[in-house]
Amino acid sequence: MSEKIIVSGVGCCLVDLLYKDIDFSSDSFRPFISLKRGDGGLTPGHLVFNEEFVEFAGSPFETVLTQITGGRAPDKKNIGGPSIVSLIHAAQLTDPAHCEVRFYGRGGNDDAGKYLLSSLQKTPVVLHDYQLTENITPSTVVLSDPDFDNGHGERMFINSIGAAWDYRPDDLDDDFFSSDLVVFGGTALVPVIHDHMRELLKKAKLNGCITIVNTVFDFRNEKLSPDRKWPLGNSDESYQYIDLLIADQEEALRLSGQTAAGAAIRFFLDKKVSALIITNGSKNISVYSNGPFFQPLVLTELSVSQKVIEELKYNKGGDTTGCGDNFVGGAIASIVNQLQGGVQHPDIQEACCWGIVSGGFACFYMGGTYFEQKSGEKLAKIKPYYESYQQQRNG
């Protein structure tokens, strides 16, 4: 491994418009709840496209949003997206002298795009190929109910793909495929990249890259074929080129076409995914590795952080937006730090520990991206949760 580890990521990067304290059980919200899979209605934890949601609601988007939110402005605007949020967090938890985190993507040449570009420049991520096109900037309206699921909270997402349609496989340069780690994050919201995942993953592996894929709810394929499993590229061959796949349980079920977590895990193992992490909100995560990159690990469950759970009873200032993305970033940072420390085969459980406390810490602030005032600030805040989690694991 080189003296400076290069992490390059491509995938979903957008503007999040966050609305907190939305009551999913209220009379004003109930008409917009999905009735069947892929119908364009809202479902806890799921994402729909703006156009399909408008068709389902039968009214202009602004009219419906006013009904849901009472006409108020978003509580916060922030950088969002499974790719960029995880990469920002990974960069915040690693030493810039020994790790460079790069992002490839597209935004729109509009006010939202200018906000996004300005905000990205305040983070430690290097914008290696990020350009503004004449399409609209990708965005997601995030509706958050902190009381959902017995107080654990949940969100619903209304997404506009916009300029993400403009990013294509040929836009990924030789530097991308010369990186130490390549990360494909939430590519279902960058459709042309997603449809070519098999070729891109294969090329990365042939170039000796470590490949990481973290997923997002794939409404495009859910709408197209709600009774069929979601594709990852144009064939299941994609999976054999993945060193680490990270998905939440719903995404794992839909990608595998299975109805039970155990069957989904067997599907991914049969498709020769080298290592797998499946998250499940506030419930235990499942993790597995058969090598050769990570140390081998039989299928294992790890619990969430009890320190985070306890503090969330009193800290109501944040939301669960970006928890999964920060989990991914924490795991990536741990992998980088282990490699930088001379570990030849990283410990995937150690990566999960950093993922768990990173995802938990994201509940304490609103939106997925945390803006540091100085380098190392976020790492210093998360370290006590990591130390407490290690004590929790040791009984």
Number of helices: 13
Share of helix, binned: 25-40%
Distance between the termini: 35 Å
What letter string, H or E per element, gives the SSE order? EEEHHEHEHEEEEHHEHEHHEEEHHHH
Largest sheet: 9 strands, mixed
Strand order of the largest sheet: 6-5-1-9-10-11-12-13-14
Number of separate strands: 14
Structure description:
- With 395 residues, this protein is α/β, with parallel strands linked by helices.
- It is 34% helix and 22% strand.
- It has 13 helices and 14 strands.
- The protein has helices spanning 50-57, 61-69, 82-92, 111-120, 191-195, 197-206, 219-224, 249-256, 261-270, 306-312, 323-340, 348-361, 377-393; strands spanning 5-11, 14-19, 47-49, 76-80, 99-108, 126-133, 139-145, 154-160, 181-185, 210-214, 244-248, 275-280, 283-289, 297-302.
- The strands form two sheets. It has a nine-stranded mixed beta sheet, with helices on both faces. A five-stranded mixed beta sheet has the order 3-8-7-2-4.
- Helix 3 (82-92) packs across helix 11, helix 8 packs across helix 9 and helix 12 (348-361) crosses helix 13 (377-393).
- It is globular, with a radius of gyration of 19 Å.
- The mean pLDDT is 95.
